[in-house]
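Entry type: protein chain
Record version: 2
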Amino acid sequence: MNKIEAWFRVVRPPIVFISIFGASVGALNVTLAQHVYLDPFAFLLLIISSGLLAAGLMVHNDYTDLASDRVNRPQKPLPIGIIAPRTANIVGIVAMGLAVILSFCTTLTLEPNAAYLPYGLNLPCGFLTLIVMLVGILYNRVGKYTGLTGHVMVAFGVGVIPYWGAIAVHPTDLVSMVPLAIAIAVMEVGREIMVCAGDIKGDIKAGYKTTPVRMGRERSLWIVLLFYLGFIPIFPISYFGWFGFPVMFGWLYLWGAIIFEIILIITWLDTYRVMKKGDDSKTWRAFERNIRTGTRLGVIFFQFILLFEVFI
């Protein structure tokens, strides 16, 4: 593994892609629903800043996860020494800092006749990015020692992605994307517990106090199921316009969310089935297959559904 490949792995392009894609579909859907002008330069800033924020958090996470990765994933760049921990720490912080600066600028435009320019700087998006950065650093530093609180920190950062994209281009609408953000965050709490259940051996050795470490794999998986099912009553709010929220999505979103929920349940069932057999190597592969790949592909599928909503 050379240094270029090592940095490629540490940045985790699938996560960066999901973040950029999620922020973009949030921006596109809110501009369509609210008939807001979408400036190309502002959209470019959105893409760059969301990518930098995700990449910075991933690099910094590898720095703080080094003790666990030495057990669970000793082949990663930091455990084998290709990238120095101090370098990863600095690069992660700098990337996140640049993301915060750029996020304040997403309402700036090169178009003199732009129909929508409420601020010289995008204060809501900038401060939200700063909060996401600080929560991410806090999680990387201490989150895995705090049990459920740590999982909620991660879920907040994931759930806020489409909301972040929406206020990046329409900072006076702080409401429309709230139900979707909450639905994704609730689901992501469960998914994050699943990730930690897969990493339980390394987390125990590193001294982490995740929910699976505290409660064991089997009990924690039942908690995962509760959060997965918690997605069901929340996601229709943006379709039906319940509780005074605006209708943001149509029938494609509704069916896409249902299929996404089915994917979550199937991956949970397969993981639980394999775990009950008591074969550690097969259990590890099941977690990797269903969580690292299966649910991640499910998230990308759901994001494509949100993208297609823009065009129907």
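Comment: The chain has one domain: 3-309.
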